[in-house]
Design a protein that fits this description.
Order of helices and strands: EEEHEEHHHHHH
Number of helices: 7
Largest sheet: 3 strands, antiparallel
Number of strands: 5
Structural class: alpha+beta
Strand content: 15-25%
Helix content: 40-55%
Shape: extended
């Protein structure tokens, strides 16, 4: 079958079946799709869906379309500390997720407003990852940390005065 996965057309070999797995899902039927993977350490990938009426195409493509959401949650937890919140009161718990989401959004919008291209970003050069061409959230966060660390926080008037004039270009990050 030919699918659109992660923005590219891919040919995949698959097997699908509907079964009950009492230990994991109880009585409802599961759609199970097994995909043969031509590269990688594991030769097969197995996808489970609680909606047994979905086609194999729907199961696989919907999994691939969720990848960006999964990366977002990983970034929120690992890079912005969402997983280690010390909020204990019910209201604090309810405020934590939206606050972390707002911080993430503001940082991404700030980066988009800067209009950097990847060559200006100073992406880290790592021998094991030579093909990196796009900016990850970790790169945006590193740039924000470098930019904010060079700001003069001792006099708030200087910070506000800089908002009224044209802003100078941010410092160029160096390769890590």
């Amino acid at each position: 079958m030919t699918l659109t996965l992660y923005g590219e057309r891919k040919q995949v070999q698959y097997k699908e079946l509907v079964a009950r797995w009492y230990r994991s899902a109880g009585k409802p039927l599961l759609k199970i799709v097994i995909v043969k993977v031509p590269r990688g350490e594991l030769p097969l990938r197995v996808f489970f869906c609680t909606d047994s009426s979905r086609t194999a195409r729907q199961v696989i493509e919907s999994y691939a379309s969720r990848w960006g959401i999964e990366v977002l949650f990983r970034d929120l937890k690992q890079l912005l500390g969402f997983s280690s919140s010390r909020a204990r009161s019910p209201l604090a718990v309810l405020r934590t997720a939206p606050w972390v989401g707002v911080c993430y959004t503001l940082l991404v919008l700030w980066h988009m407003e800067l209009g950097f291209d990847t060559s200006q970003m100073g992406l880290p050069v790592r021998p094991w990852y030579r093909t990196k061409r796009t900016v990850a959230f970790a790169d945006i966060l590193r740039l924000a940390q470098r930019t904010l660390s060079s700001a003069d926080w001792t006099d708030p008037r200087l910070l506000l005065a800089g908002l009224n004039t044209s802003t100078p270009p941010p410092p160029q990050p160096k390769a890590a």
